Structure formats: structure tokens, C-alpha cells
Amino acid sequence: MKTDIEISQQTKLLPIQEVGRQVGLEEADLEYYGPYKAKISLEVLHRLKDRPDGKLVLVTAMTPTPAGEGKTTNTIGLTQALWKMGKKAILAIREPSLGPSFGLKGGAAGGGYSQVLPMEDINLHFTGDIHAVTTAHNLLAAVLDNSLQQGNPHNLDPRRIVWRRAMDMNERALRRIVIGLGGRTEGVPRESGFDISVASEIMAILCLARDLMDLKERIQKIIVGYTYDGRAVTAGDLGCIGAMAVLMKDAVKPNLVQTVDNTPALIHGGPFANIAHGCNSILSTKMGLKLGEYLITEAGFAADLGAEKFFDLKCRIGDLRPDAVVLVISIRSLKMHGGVAKANLTAPNLEAVSRGLENMEKHLENIALFGLPAVVSINRFPTDTDEEIELVRARARELGVEAVLSEVFAKGGEGGLELADKVIAACEKKNGFHYLYGLEMPLKEKIEAICKQVYGADGVDYSPEAENALTNFTSMGYGKLPICVAKTQYSLSDDAGLLGRPRGFRIMVREVRLSAGAGFIVPITGNIMTMPGLPKHPAALDIDIDADGVITGLF
Q1: Which residue from 132, 245, 119 is spatially nearest to 197, judged by alpha carbons?
Q2: Residues 6 or more apart whose Cβ sits within 8 Å of residue 24
């Protein structure tokens, strides 16, 4: 079997204008970044505003494990399969961060014969969107510290500054730092730190903005710190909003690339799925809905984190209405949730698969909470047995859901034809899509609705700091904002070690943050890192380039 990068490098790419032409994009709509990448003018949305939307399909997954589920690969493969069936389907996914690409996770461009291309560019600097986010973020940080240096006209308390710095690389040594050392002319000494760029509130804003002016208005609302008497100081107070918007003027435009089958793919934005909402931009989703019959997208991690945030945050803010949901699972992951160690996953084990099915069941229940039809995609690995696959199909049938074998990794769109057929049928069903909670509910009630109904917790406990923050945010006028829970992706609970379908647990909210610009409240559970570290053997040690420019080791 060829590696992902070998498949990528051996695929004949279409010039990007030909890819755009398939969905009616004109030369004037595209801003070229070489022959195979382009940004799309936002004028396209204005031109097509009266065109009916296509069908919106969300791809989510069971609780992730080191065994792999293949959510992005299935999202891409489903889109390719729909094209093979004569449907004008458009893919819309997030763009990868450099940190994971050089760290443990690797790239995020799909795999096998279901990839987005040019894979190397997408996983590296791409069109510079994340760099723009990083620079705008750090401009705000620089202006803030300069304000402290120049007499502190806003009366900011250096101990209560919440705006840190950002970089798009995993670097644990920068999580907590002291800045401003060196004397009177070198700045005001204070504690600070770095977050990875995709955890920046500016990235979340980019993915929730309706246009450049909406992005500018949201940036203005970012809270950077508090005064000595407790008043919030915003980015708007510091006066650099125009300059930040200038840095973001190109980043706000969606990016057009292609799949292995040369079908159109929109890749735009990539907020952290723990600390933020983990979805591609509203702009690219809306653009895809206007350009195609089907828009296939994904949300970060499993249905408890990604799908819930997609529905309650992205759909609410973007006025989107999904038509169907695909739940991606793998036999290997079911075995891990059933108690099998990673080293033993290749051995047939119907008992472990049966135990692991509780995790699938809970995520199907979560999808049903929002009134949407679901299709289960069984992402096939070579070691899966027919008996194990039939066990999953049978359990799904008992739950009233179709479970379909997906072989898009090995076969591309051809391996997803049955999945595409079931998705088309699901989209034709009437659905009762609704949000989990109303915005008028108190913040605690919204948090508890998510924790009890989606995670399956018995209840929620709060640290004194979290209690105070919720009270303060409500008194400041933010009580009607939606909720974006920061939680481990590895368990339905807030304990990464509890696999399967945990029961009899409570969620502990240790801290609550306010993302006033993005427009949500962030209850933090467990030990959520906004600046990852590198593993013992990072992927960066295996990546190289030769004299001809051929890259190896990137996946």
C-alpha cells in the first residue's frame, strides 16, 4: 500500500480554475496561490444570495482512540462518492495547524485515496490564514503591553491580563513565562504565556464571522484584561481594531483546493475543538451550500464535543439547518472502548466489540437529541472480520439506524458509494432539528443540559472560582451567550481514562472563561492544554526534503 504522501504526489492535479469551474466559479472569483490553490472572493456569496441552499451533512465520530476512526478520511471519501453518483457535492473542512503536523497527531488532510490536495501545502503554510491569525493576535498583545509601558491609561491591572501570545507550534516551555524583564525601558514585568494559534479567540472569530466587517466588530469585543477596580478592558478600548482587520483581510476568504478525485474542496479555519468550537468557517459552509447540491463537513472529535458545538454554536450563529449526520466508527476503536489494549487490536474479539458498542449507542443518542437522522459509517481496516462488522450492523439496525461499510481509504469514492446512497436517503427524511437549550436559560442550566444530556453525567460541580466567574459574567450582561465546554476528547466524561459509556460520574468545572468576541462562555473541565507539547519522538524528526523539492515523512 502506498503512503499518503506517495498517493498525493502521484495524483495528477487539475488547475484550480478548472476545479472551480465544476461548481460555477468564474476566473474573477478566484485569487490564485499557485496553480492548485486559490482564495474565493466573498462577492460570490452576494452574487448567489438568492440561490437555494444544498443539503448540509455533518460527519462526526465515536469517542476517539489511538486506534483511529478516520473521520476526515470518510468526510472526504463521502464527497468523492457523491460526485461519482452524479451529485454536485462540495467538501468543507478545517485547515491543519503546524503544531500537530510536526508533533504527535500528524497532518489533517485525510488519508489513502480520500485526501485533499496538494497535501503537503495544506499541512504546511497553506495560504497563510493561520499566520494571519497569529500576527493579528500578537499585534493586540504588543499594543496592550505598550499601553502598560506608556503610562497605563486604561488602568489595567497587570495581574489580571488574560490576553496571552500565540504561535502555531507545539512548545510546552512557553506555556507560562515572565515578560518585560530588563529594566524600565524594556516593558512592565508580568506573568504571561503562549497558546497555540488555533486556540486563539481570533481563530474562533474568523470561523464564526459573516464577513470582514462582522469579524472586525467581533474583534472589538475581545476582553484583554481587567482594571484594578474590576472593569473589563476590550480590544476596542486599545484602538488597534482597524490594523488587526487589515491583517485578516485575506484570511477571511475561503480556500479552494481539490480531492484525489479532483472534486472541489473548501478548507478554511481551524479552531481548537477542546477550547473552541472545532469547525471550519461559517463563510465556507455557506458558500458550499450555495455552490453545490450537498455540502459535506465535519466537526472536531466526537459527537459529544464536535457535533454538539456544531449544532448549538455554529448552526445557531450561522443560521444553518443540517439535513443528516454521519457517525464514523471503527472496529478497532470499538475494541479499545471494550477494554482491549492497542497491541491486541488485530485479533478478532466479538466480546470486546459488543462492549464497545455502548459508545456508539450513546453518540447515536446524542445525534437524536437534536432531531436529526443518522447513518453509521464503519471505517474498514484490513483486520476487521465479517462477523465483527455484522455485529455492528445488527446493533445499529436494532437502534433504527443503517450501518454501512466504508472503504474510502483504500478505494476513494468507489469505496463510499453505499454510504453516499444512504446519506442521500437520510437527507430526504423530514427532521426536527433543534438546539439543546435556549439562550434565555441561566448559564448553569445550559452547562448542565450539555453535561447531563450529551455526556451522560449525573450532575455538575463547580469550583469557587468557576462559581464567581459565572456570577460575574452574568452581571456583566453575558448570561445569554451559548456554551462551549472545554473537555477531554478521549471520554464522554471529563476523565480521559473512562472509556466506553461511563455512568455514575459528575463533571467538575474548575474554571470559566469568556470569549466575548467569539460570543460564547467556556467552562473548563479537567486539564485542558491550550499549548500542546511535543512527544518523545515528534513527527518533525521524520520529515525531510530533497534537492528536487520532494517532501518525505509528512502524513
Answers
A1: 132
A2: 291
Say whether pLDDT at 107 is over 80.
no
Which residues contact residue 292 at a Cβ distance below 8 angstroms, ignoring those fewer than 6 apart? Answer: 23, 54, 88, 89, 90, 264
What does each C-alpha distance from 435 to 74, 221, 310, 314 come to in angstroms?
26, 25, 10, 11
Please write the tens of the pLDDT for every residue from 110-159.
888 999 999 889 988 999 999 999 999 999 999 999 999 999 999 999 99
Predicted confidence (pLDDT) at residue 435 exceeds the cutoff of 80 = yes
Q: How many residues does the chain have?
A: 555
Question: Where do the DSSP E strands lie in 62-183?
Answer: 89-93, 110-111, 114-117, 156-161, 165-167, 177-179
Distances in Å between the Cα of 72 and the Cα atoms of 215, 237, 328 are 27, 40, 9
Where residue 526 falls among pLDDT bands split at 50, 70, 90?
confident
Nearest CA among 493, 479, 480, 488 for reference residue 451: 493
Gap between the Cα atoms of 362 and 352, Å rounded: 17
Condensed to tens digits (0 to 9), the pLDDT of residues 455-492 reads: 999 999 999 999 999 999 999 999 999 999 999 999 99
pLDDT confidence band for 337 (50 / 70 / 90): very high
> Reduced to 3 states, what is the DSSP secondary structure of residue 110?
strand
Grid cell digits, residue 419:
454510504
Question: In the chain, what percentage of residues exceed pLDDT 70?
Answer: 99
Closest to 326 (Cα-Cα) out of 61, 89, 90: 61
- How far is 144 from 138, CA to CA, in rounded Å? 10
CB proximity list for 131: less than 8 A, separation 6 or greater: 125, 168
Average pLDDT over residues 523-542: 87
- Rounded Cα distance between 147 and 233, Å, is 12
* 109 neighbors 213 (Cβ within 8 angstroms): no
Closest CA relative to residue 323, chosen from 295, 288, 362: 295
Cβ neighbours of residue 114 under 8 Å, at least 6 residues apart?
Answer: 73, 74, 76, 77, 80, 259, 260, 408, 409, 412, 413, 415, 416
- Decide if pLDDT at 6 tops 90: no
Q: CB of 81 within 8 A of CB of 410?
A: no
Mean pLDDT of 267-293: 93
